[in-house]
Structure formats: C-alpha cells, structure tokens
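Bumping with the actual sequence this time:
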Amino acid sequence: MKKMKIIMGLLFALILLLAGMILFLLKKQDTPPENRETEKQSTQWSADSLKKGRVTAIDYSGQVYGYIGSKKDAGEKIAAYGRKQREKYDNPGVKEIEKQMEDEFGIFAVNLGEMDEETAKDVKRAFSYMYETYPCLQGTLTSVTLGNPDNYADGNIAKTESREFVINGELAVCPFVVKHEIVLYAPSFLQRDTLLKKCKDGAKQGYWPENMDISAIVVHELGHQVLNVHTMEEFGFDDIYYITEENQDAYNLYLTDSLSSRQTVPKVVLKEAYKTWEQTHQGEDYESFCRSISEYALAVQKDGGISYTETFAEAITDVYLNQEHAADASKCIQGRYKN
C-alpha cells in the first residue's frame, strides 16, 4: 500500500511538470515575434550594446614616437596616419569626399569614416563656406576626423584642438609635430536623424541659433579655428605643425592663451565687439550681448567665467545660418574680426 502511494505521488508530480511545460510552450508560441526578439536581446544586454552603430574604427587620438627632420616630413607623417585610418573602413562615396576636402582646403588628413554620404556632404558644405569667407583658414588645419569621445557619455558633439602628435623621445622635446584638428564625435555624426532632431530642438529652445543644422555644427568648430588663427598671428606663431626651437616660445604662448583662465586675445576681440553693440543697445550688459546670439553663446565655464571663444564661434554660426537676420551681436563680432 505504501509503495502504491509513492508511485501515485511520482505520477502526479510528473503530470504537473508536463502540464507546466505545455503551458510555457503555448505562451511562448502566442508571443509576437518582435516581443520574442526583445526578450532575447534583454538577456544579452551590456554597456557596449548602447554603442552599437555609434562608434568608429578610427583611432584619432593615436600618437607616434620618432624624429622628424623637416616640415615636409612632418606633413607627410600626418597624412600617412590619415591614410592608415582610411584602411579601416569601407565607404567609397565618403572616401571621395574626404580626398576632395584634402585637395580643396589644404588638409593633410580627412577621415569621415563610416559617416553616411549626406552627412559627409554637410561637413564639406561647412568647409566650403568657411574657407571662402575666411581665407585665413587655408593651411591651418592638419586633420579632420570622426572619433570616439574620450568619455562616451559626455554629450559633446565635436571639438577643435591642438595636440602633440609625433613625440621626439619625450613630450615637448624639439623638433616635434602638432596636429591642429577638428574631431566630430561618432555617437552624434553616425546617427543623422537623431542629430538633426537635436539641432531642431536646440534651436527651438534658444540653446542654439535659429535654423541650426549639421553643417552649422561644423561651422561652429571652424569658427573656433578662425579665432585660433587670429591668436596665432598675434603671437607670431608660424610653421604651426612643425615645432622647433625657433618657434617653440610662440607655440607655448599660443597654447597658454587657449586656456580658459587666460583667453587674452579672444577677450579683446569680444570686448571691442561688445562696445560697438552697446552703442545701439545702451544699458544692456555683456551677458545680454552673448544671450542675444544663443544660450550656448553664454558658455558659462566651470569656474563661472564666460568662454569668449564659444561666444565667437556661436556668432560665426549665427551669421552663417541667418545672414542679414542674424543677431546684431553676431554681426558686430564678425565685423570686428574682419576689420
């Protein structure tokens, strides 16, 4: 009798197990295919999955070590690094645009990577406008590249920078080679629709000038370079990518002035433009002058000060986008520079 009860109990447990499996399979069959895919993906989630389609194979921040004996060799070294990066992606239409930009604008290396052709054309459109409007830009940028940001979640879209590229044994030992480059961040420039929406929303909120678009983002960065060129001229910094004992002092002065704590040259340009603007906007302070361009033109820094370089770049962008309808402050800033 006891043995029979054990057998019956095991049979009952087996029936319950089979019933549970049948119910699970029926439920899974009723689940729509798209939901089943979502369930599958959720089990495979990782931090890297957020980066899918938002990273580039390009290593823009690489450095090399060695002795470079001439300015010509310095330029070739930068160009060779760009060609090496170009081998990492297959994008024939964009590669053609890259080569056109190198030829037209005197840039050693243009690497737009996996960017779609329409976005690459937006980049080139910005360069065409700026190099025609500000001929001083010719020959002052060594590189333009798509790149992964140092901090993926920092929210930045692009940056204009100068940095040591060919290191002669140790940092700052002459001669060495410097890159002057614009980096377009892959998380933004590989997501065209998302970036366009960000431009539209930013303009609507007054964060950026009216009619903001992708080409204007690049114009903004080139605006920084216009002011960089002016600063180079002020310090007599020539042969800007090949640094020797003859021009190292000028390079150091230029580099120091680019720090947020100094900005002596940009400050002169912006303060003089403000004085012109104030003549027709009496009683309005410098903050109002900046804000009339965009909220971003205020560019409040971590130390509480205003970034004069960001205000300048926003003004150049505003004039590009809105021409005669640009803010009076933007016109005064552009007029001060061009005079």
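The tokens above came from a reply further down the thread. The beta strands are 64-65, 109-111, 143-147, 158-167, 176-185, 242-243.
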